[in-house]
Batch of 4 targets.
Target 1
Amino acid sequence: IWSFVVVDAAGCTDTAEVNILPPGCIEIEVFPNPSRDFLNIHHSPASGTNSYLQIFAENGAAVLTHRVPQHAFFTRLNIEKLAAGYYLILYINGEDRKETKFIKTTK
């Protein structure tokens, strides 16, 4: 992680952090977890038109597939219609894959 401090002509400062990953290394962060209605997903930037998020139920059935636009690094998914339970979310970015789990609640 790189941290940058920018100072403007008036002396105001702001700090930003940039996370640079080596090729083939992707990330995914899902919140809130557990969730009732929407999932916010931070992921590595989509490298092309072959980037998807897929949600799988406990029995292995794919219950949702969402194409991620090229260069996107944030996705918000509506999960209101999913039954309460444990799910796996898979981020496919070209040839690279990363997965994590989340819990869908009713309350």
Target 2
Amino acid sequence: GEDCKVLVRDQFIGTYVGTEQCTTGDDSYTVTIVANSDNVKVTMTNIYNDNYTAIGTVTGDNTISFNGSQSGATFSGTGTITGSQLKLNYTISDGVLTNTCEFIGNK
């Protein structure tokens, strides 16, 4: 934060209930974001409603970038927080098919 008393990443921490629209398929689910041991990072769980975990890095006052690889799938994207609303834009691929998604959730 401005006076270094509050970590910028803290605003991302929470459980977000939302909906996702992808090039192939839509879904409703929950994403949880918790503090990481690194002060500029967060750990994000249930990406793609498939229990995928990603590490997010704070890239600005209200933005993060994230990526991960799990169970043969790789994914990466960006996130923005506005108030209590989280927006994630990312692509996910299993090596054959690639899907582009936008998740919007509120805590």
Target 3
Amino acid sequence: GKSMPRREARQRLDMMAQCRISDGKRELSISDISENGCRLAVGMFGIPINQRVVLSPRGLDCLAGRVKWCSDGFVGIEFDRPIHVAVVDHLCRLYPEETPMPLSFAA
């Protein structure tokens, strides 16, 4: 199983989404996104490969897809239908990844 090269660049962001899977709902963080999928931070919750997932980010239609990979507290979701690149850009502007403060500015 050679992994396919990604078709498009994923953009980093930090956005919470309701995540519905077969055994219930969780609030999880989307850490990067592209037209065809996203990466979810799941922490200790593994989600099995091929598991159906429905994400409900705030103010967005549901994003349905399935888990393609799982490693180190993250899972990769491939969307059933690609989302528009303008939506990706919009989300990344709305929910920029928190850049860590330099230590010298720590309170």
Target 4
Amino acid sequence: DRDLNTIEISRTSPYFSGERAILDATDATLRTLIDASRDHPVIVEGRTIGKYVYPGSDVKLYIDADIDTRATRRAGGLRAKGKDITTDSVKHDLLKRDEQDQTRPYQ
């Protein structure tokens, strides 16, 4: 099973999200996304979209949902996949990752 939606991936991805090797590995996909949106306005979400995919965007927003709602939804999804996890532990991980994202330098 090669599930990317795991707590382990969520915990470690902030350490790799800005690494050049990771960005190079997804370069073809990013070029396709950028080319497809060149002539049409788009709304795109993601943790590194504003810095690496569309660094020259006219508008960039940081939007998040209520932490308890996010934690409940994520924990439920993980439990549905057979993970033994508490909503509190998911909430803790989300808060930590949010803080990393909010303090990461953007161009």
